[in-house]
Amino acid sequence: GSDDSAQYRMDSRSWRIGVQKGEADDIAFAGYEVANPLALQQMTARLRQAGVQVKTGDTELAEKRDVMELISFEDPFGMPLEIYYGATDYFERPLVSGTGITGFLTGAHGAGHYLYAVPNIEEALAFYTGVLGFQMSDVIDIAMGPDFTARGYFLHCNGRHHTIAIAEAPLPKRIHHFLLQALTLDDVGHAYDRLDGIGGKTTDSNLGDSTSSCITATIGRHVNDHMVSFYAQTPSGFELEFGWGAR
């Protein structure tokens, strides 16, 4: 990356998560992988048939993303999305983390998932399932705060229980949280210990009104994907879920 951006590895892939300087402190874009040029052409045609404006042939952006080819477009709410094939792997350079983490569950499962707040759930579902072709995993009412519950729709396009969760919720940012899934439960415990000493505002009633930790939800298991995880607030204000063991 440059002085205004950084890219982070999770596996043999050249990068999985990018951070760039900006005013929004929010998710900037999400990328989804297809198998080959034909699959990319098919998705391009599918999007255009649905009336979506698709940008193709951006070789400069493809080089920046370190992929062979990509298309870029926006969902109905202006969220930038990209679909690509031919990402770069460095199999001869295995991930070695200074924290000693065993590794992350990626591969055919992708980088993780994120929870996305939208203004209109019907429009969102029509786009993500009807146009992009995501499949519904389940629907759950989620406590988004002490006095607010939203209905979450959990969708997948790969082997994960959900690749994206969508909720109609008046959140200050598009993204509520993103997930990183570690390979061992010990990795989760070690990450919890490291983050527990970092200051931040907590909302977990078990922790009280403390600012000595950025942990926002202590370790527990989700009812739908069975992930054992905790949540921590990032410096940007949205949250990180760090977990293990999802089905």
UniProtKB/TrEMBL annotation:
Cofactor(s) named in the record: Fe(2+)
Keyword Oxidoreductase: yes
InterPro entries to which the protein is assigned, alphabetical: Glyas_Bleomycin-R_OHBP_Dase (IPR029068), Glyas_Fos-R_dOase_dom (IPR004360), VOC_core (IPR037523), Xdiol_ring_cleave_dOase_1/2 (IPR000486)
Keywords: Aromatic hydrocarbons catabolism, Dioxygenase, Iron, Metal-binding, Oxidoreductase, Repeat
Family matches, as Pfam families: Glyoxalase
Gene3D superfamilies: 2,3-Dihydroxybiphenyl 1,2-Dioxygenase, domain 1
Similarity annotation: Belongs to the extradiol ring-cleavage dioxygenase family.
Protein's recorded name: 3-isopropylcatechol dioxygenase
Organism: Pseudomonas sp. HA-OP22
